[in-house]
TrEMBL record:
Pfam families: ABC_tran
Protein name per its UniProtKB record: ABC transporter-like protein
Entries under PANTHER family matching the protein: ABC TRANSPORTER, ATP-BINDING PROTEIN (PTHR43335:SF4)
This protein's record includes keyword Amino-acid biosynthesis: no
Keywords: ATP-binding, Nucleotide-binding, Transport
Phylogenetic classification of the source organism: Bacteria, Bacillati, Bacillota, Clostridia, Eubacteriales
Family annotation (PROSITE patterns): ABC_TRANSPORTER_2
Source organism: Candidatus Hydrogenisulfobacillus filiaventi
Domain ABC transporter: 6-232
Membership in a protein family: Belongs to the ABC transporter superfamily.
GO MF assignments: ATP binding; ATP hydrolysis activity
Coiled-coil portions: none
């Protein structure tokens, strides 16, 4: 029996003596896209950092096809593509140098990451220093390294930030292709419309607690299109917030 993609069991996180993510469990099978939705400060980025292996959980366990990030961090890191919420790009390196670094780090063939850079329209800026690039170009550089190499799991923190409508549409196509190829995709957004456009399912968070989870289509059938915004406010009201 095959382990079903990403398995998160009772994962929590303390910060300065405060529980910022309450025990959280979910399974994300291959070929599915799950969006974490909620306001700023809901705990979305903290959850994604723990899943990506960047931040250790205070409790619980995380497995990707049975592989734990703490047990074999290098193998785990190579199995996923991670887009952080903040831009860590070295300002003096060129786009080409940054992509070459990520290709070597993740064991990806250079043609694969170059093809993704072309797909994301980065050819005109590959010889320019990252510090001179617009937010949109920098975001696409980070997306290129995350999406290249057919990762088994994509962990994308606010992937639409800084993208204009053209590249938002291309992002949707790329995620649909990754899903078809069997990748599990975990993303965060505070834009309900983005979740409706990209995800199969949504998990609502508020102050580190789960408010609810379900298929996007089910929420739309209940509340209309767009339905996630209405669902979110109903869940908040039911929780007495």
């Amino acid at each position: 029996m095959t382990t079903p993609g990403l398995v998160v069991e009772e994962v929590s996180r303390h910060l300065d003596g405060r529980l910022v993510v309450h025990p959280l469990s979910f399974t994300l099978p291959p070929g599915r896209i799950l969006a974490l939705c909620g306001a700023n400060g809901a705990g979305k980025s903290t959850v994604l950092k723990m899943v990506a292996g960047v931040l250790p959980p205070s409790g619980g366990s995380i497995r990707l096809d049975g592989l734990a990030p703490a047990a074999r961090p290098r193998d785990y890191a190579r199995a996923l593509g991670y887009l952080p919420d903040r831009d860590p790009l070295p300002p003096r390196l060129t786009g080409a140098e940054i992509l070459a670094f990520f290709a070597a780090l993740k064991g990806i063939a250079r043609p694969q990451i170059t093809a993704m850079a072309v797909r994301l329209g980065l050819e005109p800026v590959l010889d320019r220093a990252a510090g001179s690039l617009s937010q949109g170009y920098r975001r696409r550089l980070l997306l290129a390294q995350a999406l290249a190499g057919r990762p088994r799991l994509l962990v994308l923190d606010e992937p639409g930030n800084g993208l204009d409508p053209r590249w938002s549409r291309e992002l949707g196509r790329l995620l649909a292709e990754a899903r078809t190829a069997g990748a599990a995709v975990l993303l965060s957004t505070h834009f309900m419309e983005e979740a409706e456009e990209l995800a199969d399912e949504v998990l609502f968070l508020h102050e580190g607690r789960v408010l609810g989870r379900g298929p996007v289509a089910a929420f739309q059938a209940r509340f209309g299109v767009p339905g996630l915004r209405r669902a979110f406010f109903d869940l908040l009201a039911a929780a007495g917030v």
